[in-house]
Amino acid sequence: MIYRFRRDWKVLLVSILTIVVIPIVLCTAWFVDGDVEALIALPLWLLLMVGITLRTPRYFYIEKNLIIVKFFLGSKVLDDIRSVRPIEVSEIRRGSRTFGNGGFMGYTGYFHSKELGSFQILAVNKDELALVTLNNGKKYVINYPKELLKQS
Fold this sequence. Notes:
The chain is α+β, with helices and mostly antiparallel strands. The chain has 4 helices and 10 strands. Helix content is 36%, strand content 38%. The protein has a 6-stranded mixed sheet with strand order 5-9-10-8-7-6. A 4-stranded antiparallel sheet has the order 1-2-3-4, with no helix packed on it. The longest helix is centred in the first third of the chain and has 25 residues.
């Protein structure tokens, strides 16, 4: 079944500020100061924002032993699932981001913590989170409906 989740207010705020403020600053630097670096940075910034947006989760297809995280471009298939358990935001906050995005259009990337080890986050909010552990040891934190966690 397909599940969609709303982005939380922090994601919306960071996304809007990033889309509005950074181009204004770069354009101001170019037009007012004649800053050539700003002219180079603007298209690079645009490419980065488009890339992050295309790899942000749109929806989650969840079956008994299969989870597909669908992005605007492509998808991530999680099969051979060992366990799915609810996870609190506090467990994630104790970790550190090794590579990723912590707020623009969602939360995606690679993280590490003492308790969880290395894991990847693919989520659009921090309200309904679950830790999915595969049989090969890989761990993913994704949005997961609370009602499904109660059934397991």
